[in-house]
Design brief:
Blueprint (H helix, E strand, L loop, with lengths): L1 H9 L2 H21 L12 E15 L12 E6 L2 E15 L1 E5 L6 E5 L6 E15 L2 E4 L2 E3 L4 E5 L4 E11 L4 H14 L1
Antiparallel strand pairs: 1-6, 1-10, 2-3, 2-9, 3-6, 4-5, 6-7, 7-8, 9-10
């Protein structure tokens, strides 16, 4: 017992902290190795194609032509961080509308607002490959969820919008096979 006390007295507080840190690191490694604890790479459940819609409100276009076109590409920035070129699947642009009451009736009529002749609301559908986790789809390190601010940019436009819809495409058998090959390569 005296030998043990002499040995403990030789150690300083810094030595004990270092030894405790090494022991904690070894325990964490062991728990990860035995799959009691998940690392970030193991939280990815699948990789799948997604399509998401970006709602762009109040775009003023006096030229008469919508600069975004289906089957073209647009560069996006997520939360002001540049990401990548994505395929545009569909573009819907509609002029601002207003409600007019119908005389002698409780009904209303929807008509184009003449005071905002060049103002449009657009819905742009984009496509990308995302990593699917428990929390949702992850693109470029960002979770794609409704309400996420996104900037679409091309050679002659830069529009700010928000994600208004998200759809995860079903995984095909070929994609399952490729993802299993990738998982085996990581092991």
């Amino acid at each position: 017992m005296e030998n043990l006390l002499k040995l403990v007295r030789k150690f300083k507080a810094v030595d004990i902290i270092i030894i405790a840190g090494v022991i904690i690191a070894l325990v964490a490694f062991f728990l990860t190795y035995k799959n009691f604890r998940q690392t970030a790479s193991k939280q990815i459940e699948a990789t799948s194609k997604i399509s998401f819609q970006v709602y762009i409100r109040g775009v003023t276009l006096t030229g008469g032509e919508i600069p975004l076109k289906a089957s073209e590409k647009t560069f996006i920035s997520i939360r002001n961080v540049p990401y990548s070129d994505l395929d545009i699947l569909d573009v819907k642009a509609d002029r601002k509308k207003t409600l007019l009451p119908v005389l002698n009736s409780k009904n209303v009529m929807v008509v184009e607002d003449p005071s905002q002749a060049y103002v449009y609301d657009m819905i742009v559908t984009l496509s990308d490959t995302a990593k699917i986790t428990k929390d949702g789809a992850v693109v470029g390190g960002n979770k794609i969820k409704m309400g996420l601010p996104i900037t679409l940019e091309g050679k002659d436009y830069k529009f700010n919008g928000t994600v208004s819809d998200l759809k995860v495409m079903p995984v095909t058998d070929d994609e399952k096979f490729n993802s299993s090959l990738e998982a085996n390569d990581n092991v």
